[in-house]
Amino acid sequence: MKVLKFGAVWCPGCLVMKPRWKEIETDNSWLETEYHDFDQDKEVVEKYHITDVLPVFVFLDKNGNEFLRLDGEINKDKLVEIINQNKDK
Description:
alpha+beta
């Protein structure tokens, strides 16, 4: 499983989510994540049809297929639950 994280420097919710993801990534070193800046990484932003409603988290399975998309500020416990339920995807 891989999580693509989309955000921007002007996005308040992105600032809230940054430390939550840092904790999750520290506790789950196996988890692969990539951060993409909305204003700088236009190719990836367009590929995943990301709008300016940020942050957005795109969950991909082993084959790179999207199976879940979340946006906004997500509770850390909810994210951990989703990650644990889908870690074998």
